[in-house]
Design goal:
By secondary structure, the protein is an alpha+beta fold. It has helices at about 1-5, 15-35, 40-50, 70-80, 100-115, 115-130, 185-190, 205, 215-220, 230-235, 300-305, 335-360, 385-390, 400-420, 425-430, 440-450, 455-475, 520-535, 540-545, 550-565, 590-595, and strands at about 85-90, 135-140, 150-155, 160-165, 175-185, 250-260, 265, 265-270, 275-280, 285-290, 315-320, 360-365, 395, 480-490, 490-495, 505-510.
Length: about 600
């Protein structure tokens, strides 16, 4: 550490791996201890448990419980991920023409569809709605596409993510970003063959990271996390080893992206002042120490500086609810967990009352002459000693207080719907007041989007950052010609793409709310009305109707119309509609003008 202080850099020089590894794990220890101080591990584990429907630790899901938290989370995720985003690429400098910018837009849209980015976005939104923070890392994976390489989005678990300094509020302002994850020893040996003989299992170290979700999923909460002993485990490599802990064939790999402003005679030692160090074990093994992996070293400095990830970390995060005082944000679970607990109590009381009423006790007077064993669920005959004794045999009556419980349950459900912000959509779907008109449905969707405006803004930024990082990797690593597909004029078209042709300053944006659901019924009704007014042509109409085979339909209609109009005068109005006949008072002469007046 003294050597690092002497160099005024966060990490020691690369030629001292004996100091680099321990320093990286010092940063990891600081990040993990700060999350422990904030209680994030316990809170996230509790939210994960509530999402599974487990109201209490080490308990099975309640049979008669209604998990409104899961319903709210799933409904919010479905609304935020209903459609693919709409990309726009804007000009930043004088370079490039309009066709090139359209090619960049098509490349981003094609990559989003071909690489199943919508599924990764859904997982990120689920993390955001559960833990309050969604973290993504966009890298270029040379093993994808049969060795050709492709840009890949890694959905980072919040448990395996940290920043330094720990009070950083903006991700790109951090001095270091840490991504640590357990990796099988065989996979680690494949990635770093030069260190295969030095890798060893870190089961005790992995058990101390504070991730107890596996115990919650299996219902076994007996093993206590070793989170408080993290520092001791780091220094001594000794910790408790539980039978249900991590497997013995896994090693903790920590990837540290840090700012390093070391200068040489030729300029910065690390492009964009970004350095990536990967260590394993307890910091005694440095797997790699390399300059910014997001920049192709074959590029000229001017070309590399024009890419988005030249001086940025390849990470992006979004909060479900923004917390001005914390990077980690907040989620709706924090506001709704108490109401969910009260709903569970009401349902448990109703279930207990129902079970008690279904199996009531029998009052059998001592002088009835009927033995207690005669009262069974089987058919039979009992013979009381007298009519008076027979009238004394009856069921024990209970106080019927379910109306009060139902009233309290309705109040809690209404509060849950109001606080969640989606109460109007829930009431619109109820059978008592169904909403059928498409105008009303569209208004409800717009109102829900207004209530979710903060989430939409945050997740749109996440998509925007992912798209910009894709363009940066494409400009750096698409060194061979590739082909992209896109729809044009109702047909599927392919075009070549090469990263060298796209190395121009550009800025990708996402239409805010483009992933939200839309009323397709309203779109079709509006398209029909606009077509009848002559505002759109057949192609736009069929696109809005999403008519299958519309390219063939337009081609066939064009041939038929060409045969009908062969030899006729051309239509001066153009489009799909012929010029209308002049109405009375629409004359072109003076009399027509006076008549119109």
């Amino acid at each position: 550490m003294a050597h690092a202080d002497r160099n005024r850099e966060l990490l020691p020089p690369a030629n001292r791996p004996d100091l680099v590894g321990p320093r990286v794990f010092e940063l990891l220890e600081a990040a993990v201890r700060d999350k422990a101080r904030l209680g994030l591990a316990e809170k996230w584990t509790s939210h994960y448990r509530l999402g599974l429907g487990r109201a209490w630790p080490a308990a099975e899901p309640l049979a008669g419980a209604a998990n409104l938290l899961h319903l709210h989370r799933q409904r919010t995720v479905n609304m935020l991920t209903d459609n693919n985003p709409t990309f726009n690429v804007n000009r930043v400098g004088p370079g490039g023409d309009e066709e090139l910018f359209r090619t960049l837009e098509r490349a981003a849209a094609c990559w989003w569809i071909e690489q199943e980015q919508q599924s990764a976005f859904e997982r990120s939104v689920i993390n955001g709605e559960t833990y309050g923070i969604a973290v993504e890392k966009v890298v270029f994976d040379p093993d994808l596409e049969y060795g050709l390489g492709e840009v890949r989005t890694v959905v980072v678990d919040p448990f395996a993510f940290g920043v330094f300094p720990t009070d950083t509020l903006e991700l790109q302002d951090a001095a270091a970003v840490l991504h640590f994850t357990p990796m099988p020893l065989a996979e680690a040996a494949r990635r770093w063959p030069e260190a295969a003989g030095k890798l060893a299992s870190d089961a005790a170290l992995l058990a101390s990271l504070g991730d107890n979700r596996r115990e919650m999923a299996t219902g076994d909460g007996s093993r206590l996390g070793l989170f408080s002993r993290f520092g001791e485990v780091l220094k001594t490599l000794v910790g408790a080893r539980g039978g249900d802990g991590p497997s013995d064939d896994a090693v903790l790999v920590c990837e540290c992206w840090a700012r390093d402003y070391t200068m040489t005679e030729d300029g910065p030692l690390y492009p964009g002042f970004i350095r990536c160090v990967t260590v394993a074990g307890a910091g005694d093994l440095v797997l790699s120490d390399r300059p910014n992996p997001s920049v192709n070293p074959q590029l000229r400095p001017a070309e590399a500086m024009a890419t988005y990830l030249y001086d940025r970390y390849p990470f992006a995060l979004a909060n479900s609810l923004t917390d001005p005082a914390s990077l980690w944000g907040a989620s709706d679970f924090e506001q709704l967990a108490g109401l969910q607990h009260e709903v569970n109590k009401c349902l448990a009381q109703l279930t207990a009352h129902k079970d008690r009423c279904a199996r009531p006790k029998i009052i059998n007077p001592r002088d009835s002459g009927v033995a207690n064993a005669a009262f069974t669920n089987r058919q039979g005959i009992v013979n009381p000693t007298s009519m008076a004794a027979a009238q004394g045999i009856r069921y024990l009556e209970f106080v019927n207080n379910t109306k009060d419980i139902e009233s309290v349950l309705a109040i809690h459900r209404e509060l849950f719907a109001q606080i969640s912000g989606l109460g109007d959509l829930e009431r619109a779907a109820s059978p008592d007041h169904p909403v059928i008109a498409y105008r009303a449905i569209s208004a409800l969707i717009e109102q829900a989007a207004t209530m979710l405006r903060g989430k939409i803004r945050n997740y749109s930024r996440l998509i925007r950052e992912r798209g910009r990082m894709f363009l940066s990797h494409m400009q750096n690593w698409y060194t061979e010609e590739r082909w992209i597909s896109f729809a044009e004029n109702g047909r599927l078209t392919v075009a070549p793409l090469h990263g060298a042709d796209c190395r121009i300053p550009a800025r990708l944006t996402v239409v805010s709310g483009s992933t939200m659901p839309v009323s397709r019924v309203q779109q079709r009704e509006e398209a029909l009305a606009l077509y009848q007014m002559g505002a759109i042509d057949r192609r736009d109409l069929l696109d809005k109707l999403d008519w299958s085979g519309r390219a063939a339909v337009l081609e066939r209609m064009g041939r038929e119309r060409g045969e009908e109009n062969r030899g006729a005068a051309p239509n001066p109005a153009g489009g799909d509609h012929p010029p209308r006949a002049p109405r009375k008072g629409d004359g072109q002469g003076e009399e027509g003008s006076h008549a119109a007046v």
